Amino acid sequence: MGVIKWGLGSQSATFKGRLGLAKSHTDGICMNPTVWADGSKVIERGEYVHPEFKDLADRLRGT
Asked: I want to staple 57 with a disulfide (CB 3.0 to 4.6 A). Which of 10, 20, 25, 48 is the partner?
């Protein structure tokens, strides 16, 4: 919790992606991100704020 992991490169067959293989693959980590999806803020500074996900995140953390 509190980070976003990005993977750039190949899409394996198990992912069922349509882009296929790439010459390389790399991962990146963003600490304390703010993430928007479909016009709604989902994560702010690494904490879930969207009501649909905040309760789930709190339960998973045991808080």
From this structure: 48
Q: Are 42 and 18 in contact (CB under 8 A)?
A: no
Nearest to 50 by CA among 36, 60, 61, 62: 36
Report phi then psi at 33, rounded to 5: -75, 160
Q: How many CB atoms lie within 10 A of CB 43?
A: 22
**Residue 4 phi, psi (nearest 5):** -120, 135
**Domain parsing of the chain, residue ranges:** 3-61
Position 12 scores a pLDDT of: 67
What does the DSSP 8-state code read for residue 18?
Answer: S
pLDDT digits (tens, 9 = 90+) for 2-59: 889 988 877 666 767 677 677 788 899 999 999 999 999 999 999 999 998 898 888 8
